[in-house]
Amino acid sequence: MSTTSRSPEQQATLVALAALPDDRIDTVDIPEAPAENWSLAQRGELYRPVKQPVTLRLDADVVNWFKAHARGRGYQTEINRVLRRHVSRSDGRTAS
Fold first, then answer.
1. Is 75 exposed, middle or buried (0-12, 13-18, 19+ CB in 10 A)?
2. What is residue 25's three-state secondary structure?
3. In tens digits, what is the pLDDT along the chain, a chain of 96 residues?
4. Which residues are within 8 A (CB) of 79 and not within 5 positions of it... i.e. 6 or more apart?
5. How many CA atoms lie within 13 A of 52 on its CB side?
6. Half-sphere exposure of 93 toward its Cβ, with a 13 Å CA cutoff?
7. What is the pTM of this model?
8. Is the distance from CB of 56 to CB of 67 less than 8 angstroms?
9. Contact at 8 Å (CB) between 70 and 80?
């Protein structure tokens, strides 16, 4: 619904609701999701982190290993996956 199709009263109500702090919003009819609900959660298929091109000097044997073990993906994608997992574990987060 576009803002042009709302009455001034409806628009004022929406503005007031948007300005409410989280602790003032009544969520008693919205139960908290149990932790086990998130165990199989996956990042949305449309999520694509911003990529930054870099020049990186790696040992030849490391590059060759990634090229040989890329599992059908590009070896650079596999290097990124391994680095992301390392960063996530180092930060105490789960890898995505």
1. middle
2. coil
3. 455 689 999 999 999 989 999 889 888 898 888 888 888 888 777 878 889 999 999 999 999 999 999 887 899 999 999 999 999 899 876 555
4. 66
5. 2
6. 8
7. 0.48
8. no
9. no
